[in-house]
Amino acid sequence: MRLIETQMNRAINDCIDWKNANTKVTFSPERNASYVYLHDNHIATVGETWVELYNCGYKTTTTKSRINAILSEHGNEERVYQKDFDWFVSTKEGTVPFAEGMRLR
Question: Which among 30, 16, 104, 27 is positioned nearest to 67, based on CA atoms?
């Protein structure tokens, strides 16, 4: 995991606002959730027991890396991967197509 992703996950865990280079975390006490942005595009929302995923149409290596870093810390063994230009999420139950705003518990 990259240093910036470690710092990003620390900010999510500590429920604080944080920014470094192209990645930003904002915490909402009203929703008790952290919002993660890459180049000002919302790529994830992390709640206490769930994670919502977005790619905003940018299926890039960096977007996938940030999402997978979040899942490694806050998910349940899920992982995003790409095959033939399409994104998928592998879960304990199997593989599902990546869907904008999908919620994982």
Answer: 104
Summarize pLDDT for 6-35 with one digit per residue, the tens. Answer: 999 999 999 999 999 999 999 999 999 999
Place of tokens 């899942």: 71
pTM confidence score = 0.94
**Radius of gyration of the chain measured on its C-alpha atoms:** 13
Buried-exposed string 45-72: b where 16+ CB fall within 10 A, e elsewhere: bbeeeebbbbbeeeeeeebbbbbbbbbe
Question: What residues contact 8, with CB distance under 8 A and at least 6 apart?
Answer: 18, 20, 23, 25, 36, 66, 69, 70
CA 36: distance to chain centroid? Answer: 7
